[in-house]
Specification:
With 705 residues, this protein is mainly alpha-helical. It contains 34 helices and eight strands. The strands form four sheets. It has a two-stranded antiparallel ribbon. It has a two-stranded parallel ribbon with strand order 2-3. Strands 4-8 form a two-stranded antiparallel ribbon. The two termini are 38 Å apart.
């Protein structure tokens, strides 16, 4: 075994073989972790039970529940199926698989699962609610209504039934019945924020702005973390001519989430309206960076560029919009004005008469006679803003609504009833993900409560058994910072090894021990010199080759960090806010073409070659040392040679099928090449094995699709 689970819960079992694991105890511990919403850690416990007793149904079910809470719906569906294959009477597995299939939009199969579960457990409230929601999602409102009638009859004091049926009525356009159900839900449970949030939408639609504002204030009081409430309150305040209050709400959302597109877009419109043009351009630029196909943001930025005198920028943005919407008349009139400001009379006239001809043709088709008035960009915006309809939902991409405030979608508002934020939803973290770092031989490691693994290799165990060092060596890719006492002890150890070397200068172990000390006190140059001396004394000293490669890369990383930001060094970071298949290194749009991303500097290329040679030597001396393949794969990623990196990760996984970090990095490498299906499959496996950030990427990649 390479990995042995270690934590205080497993201390009594460390010396036991895997087959001797107390599966009942481990399953109970996993369930405890699941109860306290520590989903990733719980999966690790259930994995142990499954490995020891794969014929037991329970661990598959509980692992499925953990995966559901991590949005790994496909993995959850598969685990539920494995559970039911072992025990077809496991009712909760039908329920969990129904949720997974419903999340995957396989509504008919989800309904079948709920029906099967209800055969064993008639009138189960939550299964009936979910089945009704599935009917709503497939637009079968009649069946959904029948279920709600039965639910309310059986559970007259259940606010969720009224709230969910209200959402259905709202979707069908029956606002009177929807409002009645929301009123009833609030009467039963006055402390549930989504009830107020949903009712506020109806009151807003009915122009009851004071009522909508009161409900949104209460929703925010009950749940101040839900950005949708602030966005909708900003909208209500805007319609109440409270621009300062609306701006404050959008500022609050952006403070919570700098990449919130709705808040950025709406604040840009408000800044445009009050004449804060430069900062409005900044907001629309952020929207475009995060959502490059947001043509309304392009058009608004074009109008702003026209206002501030950046005519070239305006024309560039108008070009983008008109390429997508070639029949958008205001775009031609506005671009005509921008071109005229640039003294491009020919281009201006061409746009103007194109718009006039198109408008006349449209008027003929409508059977009306309307003049072709160009109007200025600002007058177009004013006319549009003066209409009765001042809002649009986020999913509404009608370019004619370019300057309407965006409202938090009703669909998203309904979803908030089921997807409220809970502790442990690690997949919702909005982060930049780097590849899992290289492994190193050291004395210390940073504890990881999720993975809690010991990385094992026979050669390292044999070395430790020789007891040539004052401490046990360990393999880790989570290095720990040293305390002052530890630093002092390693400086003292350097002196001790130096004395020993004076007495016996041909002993490679002394040089290796001193190299470790220098490495830990961050003296990379001296560490490399001592690894060199180790290898000079013993050319088969595999561990020295391995650590020398690691330290050389550390030294190279440090050197590159001192270069100007414009330098093209890449570290293999994937930006979750970027489009799929693009790997970024801090600069925008670094395409996954290995040739274009290869290191150009000869010195760097030479350093990389020396590192690769060290790993090659390690593999030659010990072909089963999986960490050398992994680290070499990381070097390939830094060189943008993703194909070669994938081959190295393949070799590591071939030798250790549970190598979580290799699955994770291979998944990122595959995503960088556009292989989304296999990339996400690798990330799912990595998440199952304990890499938390895998779920963040799965969610982002599947959402972007």
């Amino acid at each position: 075994m390479r990995k042995i689970i270690i934590s205080f819960l497993f201390q009594i079992c460390i010396c036991a073989t895997f087959a001797q694991v107390n599966t009942d105890r481990v399953l109970a511990i996993g369930r405890n972790a699941l109860y306290f919403e520590d989903y990733v850690l719980s999966i690790q416990y259930f994995n142990q039970v499954i490995k020891a007793k794969p014929w037991i149904a329970e661990p598959y079910f509980y692992r499925a529940v953990a995966k559901l809470n991590l949005d790994d719906y496909k993995g959850a569906e598969e685990d539920c199926t494995l559970c039911l294959e072992r025990n077809p009477f496991y009712v909760q597995a039908y329920y969990a698989r129904g949720i997974a299939r419903q999340s995957l939009e396989i509504y008919d199969l989800a309904i079948q699962d709920y029906k099967k579960g209800l055969e064993f457990r008639p009138n189960d409230r939550q299964m009936m609610v979910n089945q009704a929601v599935a009917y709503i999602q497939k637009k079968d409102y009649k069946e959904a209504g029948t279920l709600f009638e039965e639910l309310i009859k059986n559970y007259p004091k259940d606010a969720m039934s009224y709230l969910t049926r209200g959402a259905m009525y709202l979707e069908t356009g029956d606002t009177v019945k929807a409002l009645g159900d929301y009123d009833k839900a609030i009467e039963i449970d006055p402390y549930y924020a989504p009830s107020y949030g949903n009712r506020a939408i109806i009151l807003f639609q009915q122009s009851n702005l004071k009522g909508a504002l009161a409900d949104l204030n209460e929703a925010i009081r009950l749940n101040s973390r839900e950005s949708g409430y602030f966005i909708n309150r900003g909208l209500v305040r805007y319609h109440m001519n409270d621009l300062r209050g609306a701006m404050s709400d959008y500022d609050q959302v952006i403070t919570m989430d700098k990449q919130n597109l709705i808040a950025r877009f709406n604040r840009g419109l408000l800044r445009f309206q009050v004449g804060d043009n430069n900062r409005a351009i900044e907001d629309f630029s952020v929207v475009i960076e995060l959502e490059p196909d947001n043509y309304m943001a392009y058009y608004n930025r074009a109008l702003l560029n026209l206002e501030v005198g950046d005519y070239r920028g305006a024309v560039s943005d108008f070009d983008v919009v008109l390429k997508q919407y070639p029949n958008f008349l205001p775009g031609y009139y506005s671009r005509s004005e921008a071109k005229r400001k640039m003294n491009d009379a020919v281009g201006a006239d061409r746009d103007y008469w194109t718009a006039v001809d198109m408008e006349q043709e449209m008027n003929k088709k409508k059977g009306t006679k309307k003049g072709g008035t160009s109007g200025t960009a600002s007058s177009n915006a004013t006319a549009q803003a003066g209409s009765d309809e001042k809002t649009r939902e986020q999913s509404d991409n009608n370019i004619e609504k370019f300057n309407r405030l965006v409202v938090y979608d009703k669909e998203e508002e309904r979803k908030s009833k089921y997807n409220s934020e809970i502790r442990g939803r690690v997949q919702d973290r909005n982060v930049r993900i780097d590849i899992e770092p290289q492994f190193i031989l050291t004395y210390y490691e940073r504890p990881d409560q999720v993975k809690a693994l010991v990385y094992y290799d026979k050669s390292m165990e044999d070395f430790n058994n020789r007891m040539v060092l004052p401490r046990q060596l360990r393999l880790t890719n989570q290095e720990a910072a040293l305390t002052e006492a530890q630093i002092a002890s390693h400086f003292a150890s350097i002196n001790e090894f130096s004395s020993k070397i004076e007495q016996d200068p041909s002993n490679p172990d002394y040089y290796f021990g001193r190299a470790l000390d220098y490495m830990l006190v961050q003296d990379f140059a001296e560490a490399i010199r001592n690894y060199d001396k180790t290898i000079e004394q013993d050319s088969s000293y595999m561990l020295a080759y391995f650590n020398r490669a690691v330290v050389r890369y550390k030294q190279l990383e440090y050197t590159q960090s001192q270069l100007p930001a414009s330098d093209d060094y890449a570290s293999g970071v994937i930006d979750l806010n970027a489009k799929p298949n693009v790997i970024q290194s801090g600069a925008p749009s670094v395409v996954n073409d290995p040739a274009s991303g290869m290191l150009k500097d000869n010195t760097r290329a030479y350093e990389h070659e020396k590192i690769i040679r060290d790993y090659d030597k390690v593999i030659q001396l010990n072909p089963g040392f999986v960490y050398a393949y992994f680290n070499r794969g990381n070097i390939r990623c830094s060189q943008r040679d993703f194909r070669a990196a994938i081959l190295d990760y393949n070799e590591a996984i071939l030798r250790d099928p549970d190598f979580a970090e290799a699955y994770f990095n291979r998944g990122l490498a595959r995503l960088s090449q556009g292989d989304a299906n296999r990339g996400i499959a690798d990330l799912s496996k990595a998440g199952e094995l304990g890499i938390i950030n895998a779920y963040s990427i799965i969610k982002r990649m599947t959402t972007s699709e």
